[in-house]
Amino acid sequence: MIIAHDLGTTGNKASLHHDDGRLVASTTVGYPAHFAAGGVAEQDPQDWWDAVATATRDLLVRTGTAPAEVQGLVVSGQMMGAVLLDGEGRPVRPAIIWADTRSGAEQRELEQALGAEHAYELLGHRLNPTYSVEKVMWVRDNEPDVWARVRRFCVAKDYIVLGLTGRLATDRSDASGTNAYDQRTGDWSDEVLAAARLDRALFPEILDSTTIAGTLTDAAAAALGLHDSSGRHRDVRVVMGGGDGPMAAVGSGIVAPEDGAYVCLGTSSWISFASNAPLRDPGLRTFTFDNVVPGSFVPTATMQAGGASIQWISEALSPDPARPETARLTAEAGGDLDTEDLYFLPYLLGERSPIWDPNARGAFVGIGRHHTRRHLVRAVLESIGYNLLTSIHAFRESGAAIDRIDAVGGGAQSDALLQTLADVWGVPVRRRTIVEEANSLGAAVTGAVGLGLADFAAARALSEVTAEFTPDAGRHGIHAERHARFTAAYDALAPWFAAGAQGVSR
Q1: How far apart are CA 205 and CA 100, in angstroms?
Q2: Which DSSP string do the residues of 254-306 spell out, in sequence order?
Q3: Which of these, 105, 166, 213, 399, has the minimum number of CB atoms within 10 Å of its CB?
């Protein structure tokens, strides 16, 4: 057996797999995130570790799996954060996660030193406060007492691998999401580190995602329940793993260019596909991660608050925000419902693709007395489609062919959302059998490859298409016009957002 962990924003989804990647069982252990004004988004790394330990024990007990049957562990995780460690490998402060946008000044410092277009060519990504290196710089510039204790940096899944094996390392997919990785050389960029005024010694060694990082330590085996009654354990191998974006691609059966594109409808939402080379958008709207499949890449466009926008409106409109009625609300907003010129800007956490504006905020535009909660929810669903449509256009303008899109992530369970996306995008959208577990399935396949038990092609057979949503030509034509109005709404409000960020009275 292989156990895969996927460290998301709201919890750790763990899954137990046969050694060929087939899913046996899954479980989720939630943990909190702290969001506050000013772009604050943080989590406690101890919560991640506790969730990994609890989920592993739960899987073993519920399935009757003996510890001796577990051959390996592999971890997928949220990308682009910053976990800062002391000399003993202990966090010196809460982790700053991907959604945090406090480091605007640090982004501007890097842009001034490197140039925005040169940095994009170097990194495959725009410089932006959502990336790791800007977050590290922010701690140095704003928390000197904390910074004095910092000796190393890593991201979420690396922290778990450190706890499992005692080895601090990262993989190429996560390294490529830091804004400090030279995608041309496959190593940390001396040019960026010099501009950031950061010591290379802070950064971990870089491994392929399929590399065996080490074996489970005695302490980790005890914490996870992977030991016998005498406290001994087998040499359970830990495969390095990778970032949740590329892992979701593998879990969607997207392991080569011919496999097409997929959309992950999680807290953040993204469209991506496999490529043999990085894709550079002249408009700098999209970006490219290194893939967990060695030697390949995943051009990607990520919006900050895809599923998060649906979660927010569900909490706001449900009698008990702690128990949001998401399924009912989204179902009510499906079908031919017309929002009657109501739009939503889904920028609750600022935005990455396609506008790259950390100052942007959510807004309903065009709301009238006649609008109901159905219209509000419908506008939120359409906004996800419109925002990602701009990125689909960017991919096509850069030469990518996107003629169908497979859907995974929690939002893929909603018929109303998938039909809305098909109508907005004008291409079929397909639901697969594995949706919420796509990231951990990708991790399991990556683990099986690392252990020499399978190859990445096996992923294609582990998740099947169960439903296809075809676009309605009439609605697609209407959405093409509405998409232009959607983008115009942001363009009109962008100066207002910028003035608010500068403390100008509105």
Answers
A1: 25
A2: --SGGG-EEEEESSSEEEEE-BSS----TT---EEEEPSSTT-EEEEEEETTS
A3: 399
For CA atoms 139, 142, 146, 151, give the dihedral sign. Answer: positive
Q: What residues pair up with 205 in beta bridges, in sequence order?
A: 169
Whole-number Å distance between alpha carbons of 363 and 347: 8
Q: pLDDT per residue over 8-38, tens digit each?
A: 999 999 999 998 888 999 999 999 999 999 9
Residues of the chain with pLDDT under 50: 505-506
pLDDT tens-digit profile of 207-249? 999 999 999 999 999 999 998 766 666 689 999 999 999 999 9
Report yes or no: 176 and 296 within 8 Å, Cβ to Cβ.
Answer: no
Angle at 149 between CA 144 and CA 155, to 5 degrees: 100
Query: What are the start-end ranges of the E strands in 53-203?
Result: 72-77, 83-85, 95-96, 152-154, 169-171, 181-182, 187-188
Q: Which residues pair with 462 in a beta bridge?
A: none
Residue 42 to residue 247: CA distance in whole angstroms: 23
pLDDT in tens, 287-316: 999 999 999 999 999 999 999 999 999 999
The Cα–Cα gap between 33 and 404 comes to 34
Q: Pairing mode, if any, of strands 187-188 and 181-182? A: antiparallel
Q: Give dist(CA 476, CA 292) in Å, integer.
A: 35
The per-residue pLDDT of the chain, averaged, comes to 94
